[in-house]
């Protein structure tokens, strides 16, 4: 088991830059459950276990600013998650970056602590009951910066290929299902309000 990492050495990077195409272009960061937007919910979920907070987003910076979030847009457009990870790694000022997509439904309380304790040299990523969750991960910032640059230069956009460049072991969370808010049915199942543009 690895030694712990001080909370001040970990930045939380929320991935909120997706286009929400299967939800009619709805910004999933602002989907509400019990009146709380997803991006706000996740910003508070592990608040005692990390230091700074960054939000990877490519629209509505003023809306994020109202909540005090520092928005990090993609440095290179249209790369998908690799572009978001590249931007977050570039902006991250701590040795470690913990990433979470804002469209997750839930996560167990020990998520970050377990990734920290079972990390390899460059971090670790989660595997839940549905399989690998490569964006639910702890990254060593410097290694991620190098890996993203190499992947982008090689035209590789798949996150699993990025993982292969790093010492990033899989950490199994047996019996846990994070879930994803990708479709109107996903929203209904999670108890979220389905936006009108996504209900048809």
Principal-axis shape: globular
Structural class comes to alpha/beta
Estimated share of beta-strand residues: 15-25%
Distance between the termini: 49 Å
Runs in which pLDDT lies below 50 for 5 or more consecutive residues are none
Instruction: Summarize the main sheet.
Output: 7 strands, mixed
Question: Radius of gyration, rounded?
Answer: 16 Å
**Continuous helix count:** 7
Number of strands: 9
Element string (H = helix, E = strand): EEEHEHEHEHEEHHEH
Strand neighbour order, sheet with most strands: 5-4-1-6-8-7-9
**Mean of all residue-level pLDDT scores:** 89
Helix content: 25-40%
Short description:
This protein is α/β, with parallel strands linked by helices. The chain is built from 7 helices and 9 strands, in the order E-E-E-H-E-H-E-H-E-H-E-E-H-H-E-H.
Description of the structure:
With 200 residues, the chain is an alpha/beta fold. 28% of the residues lie in helices and 21% in strands. The chain has helices at 38-45, 61-65, 81-91, 111-117, 141-153, 159-164, 184-190; strands at residues 10-15, 32-33, 36-37, 53-56, 70-72, 96-101, 123-128, 131-140, 170-172. The strands form 2 sheets. A 7-stranded mixed sheet has the order 5-4-1-6-8-7-9, with helices on both faces. Helix 3 packs across helix 5. The protein starts with 9 loop residues before the first strand and ends in a 10-residue tail after the last helix. The mean pLDDT is 89.
């Amino acid at each position: 088991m690895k030694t712990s990492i001080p909370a001040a050495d970990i930045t939380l990077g929320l991935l909120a830059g997706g286009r929400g195409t299967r939800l009619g272009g709805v910004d999933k960061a602002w989907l509400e459950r019990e009146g709380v937007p997803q991006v706000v919910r996740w910003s508070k979920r592990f608040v005692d276990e990390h230091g700074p907070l960054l939000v990877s987003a490519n629209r509505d910076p003023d809306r994020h600013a109202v909540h005090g979030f520092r928005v990090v847009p993609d440095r290179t457009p249209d790369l998908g998650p690799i572009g978001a990870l590249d931007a977050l790694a570039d902006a991250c000022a701590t040795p470690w970056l913990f990433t979470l997509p804002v469209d997750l439904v839930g996560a167990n309380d020990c998520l970050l602590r377990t990734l920290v304790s079972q990390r390899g040299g460059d971090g670790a990523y989660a595997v839940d009951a549905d399989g690998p969750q490569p964006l639910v991960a702890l990254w060593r910032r410097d290694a991620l910066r190098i890996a993203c640059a190499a992947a982008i230069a090689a035209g590789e956009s798949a996150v699993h290929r990025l993982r292969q460049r790093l010492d990033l072991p899989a950490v199994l969370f047996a019996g846990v299902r994070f879930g994803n808010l990708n479709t109107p049915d996903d929203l209904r199942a999670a108890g979220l309000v389905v936006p009108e543009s996504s209900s048809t």
